[in-house]
Each structure stands twice: as C-alpha cells, then as structure tokens.
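User: My advisor, Dr. K., asked me to get a structural model of this assembly before our group meeting. I'm new to this, so sorry if the format is off. These are the inputs:
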Amino acid sequence: MARPPKHWPSHVQYLTVPKFHPSVSTDALSFLKGGSSNRLNSSPPAPPSLGVIRQITDPSHPAYGQHGLFAVRKIPARTLIAEYIGEVHSDERPTSDYDISLHRFPGESVGMDAATMGNEARFVNDYRGIRQKPNAQFSDQRTAGGGLRMCICSLAEGIRKGDEIVVSYGKGWWAARSSS
Ligand SMILES: C[S@@+](CC[C@H](N)C(=O)[O-])C[C@H]1O[C@@H](n2cnc3c(N)ncnc32)[C@H](O)[C@@H]1O
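Assistant: The format is fine. Below is the predicted structure of the whole assembly, which you can bring to the meeting.
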C-alpha cells in the first residue's frame, strides 16, 4: 500500500488506483476498464502527482483553513498533473463535495467520488475568488491499459512552481450548492 503524502487527512483512505463500488453495472465496468482484464486491481497506479497538498493560510482565500494543491515545479502547458482517483460509483452521492462525473451511459451515470478515499487531486480547488481564470482542467483519458481515467491537466499557459492549481468546477456545481 502506498504511503499517503504530507497533510493527508487520517479519515480518508489514500489510493493510487480507483476502487469500484458494487453499484457500477457489468456493462459500465467493461467500458470503463477498456477491455483490460476485469480483475479489480489490474490497472497501473497513477503517475506521481505534480501537485503537493498545502494548508491555505491566507485569510483572504475563499477556502481559508482548508487545503489546496500547489505546483511542485514549473508545469508546462497541457501536461498531466494528476489523475483524479476515488471510488467509481453509479449510486447517488448528493452530499459529496468530492464527486465528479466520469461517464454517462443511457440510464447510468458513473461518478468518481473522493470523499472517503482518493489521492492528491481531491484537493484541487475551484478558481473562483482565487485566480482570474483556471490554470488546469479536468479531462478524461485512457491509460495504456485501456482504463478510462479522469485527469487534471494544465491549460495553455502552463503553471509556475508554487502556484495553486485551480480548475473550474462549473457553474452547475456551485448552483447545486447554493440551492441546497
Ligand atoms: C474537492 S474539495 C477541494 C479541496 C478542499 N479545499 C479541501 O481542503 O478538502 C471542494 C471544496 O473545497 C472548497 N472550495 C473549493 N474551491 C473553492 C472556492 N473557489 N471558493 C470557496 N471554497 C472552495 C469548498 O468547500 C468545496 O466544497
């Protein structure tokens, strides 16, 4: 089992490959794994993250007191920063702030939830109130083994060493929270 990075919360399980919840259908599993072996741990571990977890100590930061992900080195444009790893599921997770959509099938929406298990990528904050615009984005990619993964990649300008890595969660994400 891989050792969690610095600042990893003790109540969250550290993962290097996604875990699959029983709610995911057999057909969805086959698509997500891309025809690779159906053994649950057959996928390769995610490459090391180019971001480190840091506590946010600036009181003007909108996520003050929480954590964020910061560039360990200069990150060129369109570079994989980290895979977003968590629990792949098809059940509803309305209260999770760490759940992102992985793929939609007719009648089945598959998400990746990093609320109780995940990796460094779960600490990526939304750019609103932090920077003028995102410097990274979510993008789905297939691993060499064929598995579908959600990745965080730098945008066209690249990222300076030490900068916070921020994405857009999307207006819908914030709208869902303001209406609940
Ligand atoms: C996926 S988590 C990001 C990591 C989180 N900061 C932490 O320390 O666990 C999403 C949560 O981070 C906070 N967050 C992220 N971006 C934010 C922003 N731009 N403004 C305010 N809060 C933000 C919100 O509390 C949100 O529910």
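One thing worth pointing out at the meeting: Residues 37-41 have pLDDT under 50 and may be disordered.

User: Perfect, thanks a lot.
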